[in-house]
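Practice problem: predict the structure.
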Amino acid sequence: MSRFKRAVSRAKYAAVGGSFGALIGGLVSRNAASSGAAIGALIGATIGEQRVNVDEFVGKVKDRNGDEQAE
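Answer:
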């Protein structure tokens, strides 16, 4: 399930990053829109990958400290 979750997260953030990159690039020119979309998708995929890694780490820490009560 972890591979599937990572792939979906990467795709979701790549799509959002690509759309923002195209929006910003489109303000400059039509050619910049496609370049901005590519760069935005790459950045979005990287963020999606890192977010899944952080979520997994937080889950492991919560499981490890789950028996203790916070005061």
